[in-house]
Fold:
Amino acid sequence: MPRPEHSISRANISENALKVLYRLRQESFQAHLVGGGVRDLLLGHEPKDFDVATDATPEQVRQVFRNCRLIGRRFRLAHVHFGREIIEVATFRGNAVPDGEETEQQDETGRILRDNTYGSIAEDALRRDFTVNALYYNIADFSLLDYADGLSDLRHGRLRLIGDPEQRYREDPVRMLRAVRFACKLGFTLDEGTEAPLFKLGHLLEDIAPARLFDESIKLFHSGYGLAAFEKLRQYGLFAQLFPATEACLAHEQDGFPITFVSRGLANTDRRLAEGQSVTPAFLFAVLMWEPVRRRFEQLLADGEIASEAMFKAASEVSRRQQSLVSIPKRFSLPMREIWSLQPRFEQRDGKRPQRLLTHPRFRAAYDFLVLRAQAGEADLELADWWTRFQEASADERASMLERGAMKRRRRRPRRRKSSQATDAPSHADTLDAAN
Structure:
């Protein structure tokens, strides 16, 4: 498709990506913008990043760019660094394996373990996952190349895998999560052949490294469409592969809970991202894993454990099992567990305890978590209202609130009996602020 027939303009392409494209072209290599960047430009979206495909080998790319690093074991890639921006350059992949070389390795399930077979641009296009990601913008003449009928799928809002869907999912099971993510991100419908295997191949995710599944979880739930992704993952049985303990709880919901809690948490995250506010994986995973933690916590309380010990044990047990599936780094898992551990402390509104809790570094995130629980009907709304008023009150008002609380606790003593009138609590429906 020549330049006059498509909408991609160099004015919308990263300056650093253009530098890479032009420099490779000057060195007599082919240079094409490819993948999500081309797809998003055609849809009128601002690309998150720009990837380049070329016939230059990774070693040749490194010779051209001094600011280049080679990465990857399964497939060798070149990263060209421009400050904080990285332009990823990939060599065209092929199908033929040279004589005497073992450049592609697969396990017994068909999953690709190593793939450094280079080929032509036509071969490379058919090795990509989805047709809408197999479009190439040629810097030589500004034309658009389409080898897999991706433009038609783009026009019809259809997401379709290239090749046999089941084989492609077996080559890399993470493609199932990518199918859900792209369908939600783009608002596309899944092609029937692409969708059907999702219902039966979820178990293949068991062989994916937990650290990689953490990265994919962040992409799914921290990209502005987390609630839609959550619902679609559950539809295909994929959420159960990532968070089986949570799914087991959701399958036995009562009065709309806990699915209301998880949905509200993800909807809040989507809202914050849409408003350009910060989010943290610690809060996200605290929401996703809270219900199994809460249920175990209540079991331990019933067995006679004190609240702090019960919460510690419940959090440890659930987190330990989850780590073998989706590995949450300590920089997120530790604050996640702090958010949980502070929940019982909100019940303690006597003496100096509320003041001490206010100074806790994780107070704000834990308070937001409490509000979310109250909105979902799992915690007492009066409790959340009290903490909303308490943190916004002046020093004198706080002292008065603590005194009224103390008088309520002493009402059973005849000689000290007094009454107090509760004040109306301000609404806190929009106060969620999942701070680091």
The CA atoms of residues 8 and 361 lie 47 Å apart. DSSP finds 20 helices and eleven strands in the chain. The chain has a mean pLDDT of 88.
